[in-house]
Amino acid sequence: GAEVVFSVDCTKLKDYFLPEKREFDCIYFNFPHCGRKAGVVKNRELLAHFFHSSAEVLAEEGEVHVALCNGQGGTPADQPRREWHNSWQIVAVAAGAGFILSNVHPFNAETIHGYKCTGYRSQDKSFCVQGALNHIFTRSTAPPCSKPRSCETQLESQKVSFQVPQVLVDKINRGFLEPNSNHPVWTVKEKLTAGLSQAFPLQNIDSCLSLLQQGHLDGACHPNVFWITLSPGESPSAEEMSHRLANTVLSSPVDFCQDTDKNVQEGCHIPKQFYLRPSLLPHAQVIIQEGAFPPGTLHVLSGPVFRQCRVTPHSMPVFHEMLIVCAVHRGTESSWIQMLVNNIKTTIYSLHQTTSGTKASLNLQEATSFETTELDDFAAFESQLSKIQYLICMETDAPGSRVGVIRTSQELISRELVVIFASLNLDLLAMLLCGISDWRMLWTSDTRFLQQFPRGELRLFKSFSLYPPSYVHDVSFWVPDGEQFDEVAFHTIARRVSGEMVISIQLRDSFQQSGTGRRSLCYRLTFQSCDRALSCREAAEMQLHFREQIHQHLGVTLR
Fold first, then answer.
1. Strand-by-strand arrangement of the 58-68 sheet
2. Are 182 and 250 in contact (CB under 8 A)?
3. 28-57 b/e (C-beta count within 10 Å ≥ 16 → b)
4. 394-424 burial code (b ≥16 CB/10 A, e <16)
5. Phi and psi of 39, rounded to 5°?
6. Class of domain 177-227+274-451
7. Does domain 13-139 have CATH number 1.10.10?
8. How large is the average pLDDT for residues 278-291?
9. CA gap 376, 425 in Å, rounded
10. Residue 155 and residue 236: Cα distance in Å, rounded?
11. CA torsion 235→237→242→247, rounded to 10°?
């Protein structure tokens, strides 16, 4: 019942099938080869043309199966693995046509009825298929939208709109914590809330918390925030801004913003710009000032927060914070902190056992036992917001295990009460519990991610993009004379121009020219996508764009 077509050129598949017959669910190419002693370069070219041809006749959710002899593919699945330059580089070649490697398994000729491994040196002889692998490719999603976009948010009684920073256009208003969500971040938040509510009186703050804040920032935090200018005609008056600032300031020791009167006395100016909230602490301050804050009741706030940061595997420009706030009687704060952590620990232990079958736990570490240089980006930024007493750490071998901080503040309500603030990074918790190695996967638009998480359940994540190719580019430049180089801005530009496809930025060399004193820096950038196809050409174009942007925005002189 099958139709067999002979003499088909695999690089021009659409020429052999009518348009209505071009939606194939599967395309198999077993052991492609140019013939005779063709080298790796010619066979890469053959594969490249084949993948482009397959893209024209494959169904949207179809698969392309390519079987290769042991070592040819150049992926870690090959044992032994060839050097990259001596392989067919199949994942990079496929990426050029918009495909990602979604599965790979041994090629077993015995299970295919009537199949014979023939064609050795274009003869009717069999060839060795021991260790051969079948590579299964699927279509990649399209690149995320990079067009500028505006966003609306509530600012007290007024709705305002603002231009979203380019690096965040695909991450604003994603609705991960909405009631109908099945995102693992939502599940972690709901499980933690359920556990806390069984032990303590609890109030969820469900009111709309503004994405914007304003106020005089402490110098340590200043480079790490995303500054925002409201759309024309929507900026509040100076009186309104002064009033709002006075009502959102956090007093010492939670000194995220400094006191307004003090700023005026010292000649500081109220900023005309707003910034995306880097923390939920100011919202907690407003709740405390409103007075409806009975001792012993937990108030839980949650939502996305935004921070400019360097490119590292667990540094996130946006993540979902869960802030637990509680007022307790002075002298009882230590026992309350331990009760809170024990409750969270029980929930995490249960979730981790469900997902991986192994034990995991949380512990408290005194922040004073760490130097600032020993803290990861999450903990380091929190310590800049205000003094932290404890780090909440997950006992696991995975990096990024510091998932929260605890701080206390005295005399915010009265001299008899101490306020406890426990801040948790829900994204890091979801990653550690579900075995997600790359934070960017949490934000993917590929439906294959959320399909793995039924509503209310956490499971171990299975990547649908295996062994993604990476591309390395260097950039060298002279730093402007007499200026401090802004490395955070440098990393943020890399995030923006690549659409979060730069996974590593390393300083390779620093050189000071004798006589002139000019300073030159050399950085190495590694481009790689965790969820979609990234070709060598795309990475090279991103690098060129990056060079233009750092020259334009940082004033460096390219070498």
1. 24-30, 58-68, 133-139, 99-106
2. no
3. ebbbbbeeeeeeeeebbebbbbbbbbbbeb
4. bebeeebbbbbbbbbbeebbeeebbbbbbbb
5. -85, 180
6. alpha beta
7. no
8. 84
9. 13
10. 10
11. -60
| CATH number of the structural domain 471-558 | 3.30.70.380
Instruction: Give the Cβ contact number of residue 303 at 10 Å.
Output: 19
Residue 154 one-letter amino acid:
Q
Q: Specify the long-range contacts of residues 545-552, CB closer than 8 Å, at least 24 apart.
A: 545/497, 546/475, 546/493, 546/494, 546/497, 546/498, 547/475, 549/493, 549/496, 549/497, 550/475, 550/477, 550/490, 550/493, 551/477
Confidence of residue 21 (pLDDT cuts 50, 70, 90): confident
Q: Which of 288, 366, 285, 281 lies closest to 321, judged by CA? A: 281
Average pLDDT for 239-263: 41
Which residue, among 409, 405, 403, 416, has the nearest Cα to 366 in the 3D structure?
405
Instruction: Delimit the domains of the chain by residue range.
Output: 13-139, 177-227+274-451, 471-558
Sequence-distant (≥ 6) Cβ neighbours of residue 133 within 8 angstroms: 67, 68, 70, 73, 77, 78, 104, 105, 106, 107
Q: Are 22 and 59 in contact (CB under 8 A)?
A: no
- Residue 455 has a CB neighbour count (10 Å cut-off) of 12
Tokens of 487: 């490395």
Q: Which residues contact 483 (CB under 8 A, 6 or more apart)?
A: 555
- Amino acid at residue number 532: R
Query: Contact at 8 Å (CB) between 254 and 421?
Result: yes
Peptide bond into 201 cis (omega under 30): no
Please write the tens of the pLDDT for every residue from 441-454: 999 999 999 999 99
- Overall pTM surpassing 0.85 (yes/no): yes
Q: Length of the chain, please?
A: 559
Closest CA to 500 of 526, 465, 468, 466: 526
> Alpha-carbon distance 199 to 195, whole Å?
7
**Tokens 């579900």, residue located:** 434
